[in-house]
Amino acid sequence: MKTAVLGAGLSGLSAGYYLLRRFGKPLTIYEALPRVGGWVRSENRKDGNFIFESGPRTIRPVGEAGANTLELVEELKLAVKPIPRSHVAARNRMLYAKGQLCLLPNGPKGLFGVLPPFTKPLYKALLRDLFTKSTPVKTGDESIYSFVERRFGKEIADYAISPMICGICAGNAQEISVRFLMEGLFEKEQKYGGVLKGTLYALFQNKEKDSKEGLFAQGQPKLYTQALQEKWAMYGLQGGLEILPRTMRKYLVERDVNVQLSNECRNLSFNSSGAQMTIKDAEVPVEHVVSALPAHKLAPLVKQQHPSLCAELLEIPYVDVVVVNLQFQGNLLKQDGFGLLVPPVEKLPILGVIFDSCCFDMGGNTILTVMMGGHWFEQWFGNRPSQKQILDLATSHVQKILQISEEPKFSRIHTLHKCIPQYTVGHKRRVESIRNYIKFFKLPLSLCGAAYDGVGINDVILSARRQVEAMQ
């Protein structure tokens, strides 16, 4: 089977990896940019012995998707940097709310005290769920904010769920589908009348299946077993996360996979023998196309032949994010941890701050990553501010929140346009409709990546694997 993959981000490279493993050659990956990795970008500063990450920096070794990524990491022989659950970066996560830095509870004891920004013990939110009647949702979906507010109260929705959504997808919890993160809880509530009731009933009935059986019938990856035994909370990679796509490219090229950079697909049409791609000015025929492009990039390629498919793809919205990396000399943090999130109700221009130097050794420097924009990008950056304005805004808020008086010695600013898809209410049905269209018209096209099956690193890699395995 002569197959083409569009996009050489993590999902596209993963699609190449699984296509090679399943079908062998010939296989070509086309990437519009002169580099692989998509939004994953690591800048190693040898002069200061630290790394700036403008995209993700850690991976969680959780469940089937986490095991799948570790299998890939193992195959590529990459050096991992584990962060165990006992590590301060795993234990301490914070909010900046009501004018103070608030440490979030990290164990059962935290349910019973009153910890700011909350005004009552968290166990009362659980009791609320236990005694609140279920409300049938006729559309089969609602916002995650609405769901949490219904079950656990407005305070939990404002100060727990909303900032978490900011941290994961830079989105507005009042628009994001409950099925994005809490599909299982939502379905239990709809079926059994409550989240706790449904969870307890499912445990009692022993209906929870071991999700690892499907992919790893022959035994789980050694690295995943190690992660479980050593209780990893998350892990990074030696040299920064960009080492993953770079090594994947090297692995594929060494096995005669053609990875073409600076080669953008400009049109995509389908016929009885497969697909026709326009790459630069050449027409390239293939039997099957795996698109790992963002939905908004794929849409115009199919518009001429399939305008309704184009329209459905464009219904998946994206947000812009500003990432500011800061380096300060010495250890300036008064409270170590993974970082902090800022609830949208605080109406501040930053979404959160990651404490990189608490997660990994950064040569005695304080390395911070400030995330801004997302759903609120236009509100804060609509007039195209200068790099200096962005840096000043990020620095001033970091200095105030973390009580740092020094100026950063080194910084990097990245504006990532349309970088994170938003799983707004109805997303699951939207994706089903897109894939049903492809199936109905028997298009030799598979879709994988962050637009469809989850926005995390584990999600996009597993998305590629599942779409390849579904191919005939």
TrEMBL record:
Catalytic activity: protoporphyrinogen IX + 3 O2 = protoporphyrin IX + 3 H2O2
Cofactor annotation comment: Binds 1 FAD per subunit.
Any single GO CC term annotated in Swiss-Prot or TrEMBL for this entry: mitochondrial inner membrane
A Gene Ontology biological process term: protoporphyrinogen IX biosynthetic process
Family annotation (SUPFAM superfamilies): FAD-linked reductases, C-terminal domain, FAD/NAD(P)-binding domain
Top EC class for this record: oxidoreductase
Pfam families listed in its UniProt record: Amino_oxidase
Record pathway: Porphyrin-containing compound metabolism; protoporphyrin-IX biosynthesis; protoporphyrin-IX from protoporphyrinogen-IX: step 1/1
GO molecular function: oxygen-dependent protoporphyrinogen oxidase activity
Domain Amine oxidase: from-to ranges: 10-471
EC number: 1.3.3.4
Keywords from the named record: FAD, Flavoprotein, Heme biosynthesis, Oxidoreductase, Porphyrin biosynthesis
Cofactor entry: FAD
Location of this chain's protein in the cell: Mitochondrion inner membrane
Similarity annotation: Belongs to the protoporphyrinogen/coproporphyrinogen oxidase family. Protoporphyrinogen oxidase subfamily.
Its biological purpose: Catalyzes the 6-electron oxidation of protoporphyrinogen-IX to form protoporphyrin-IX.
Protein name: Protoporphyrinogen oxidase
Source organism phylogeny: Eukaryota, Metazoa, Ecdysozoa, Arthropoda, Hexapoda
UniProt gene name: Ppox
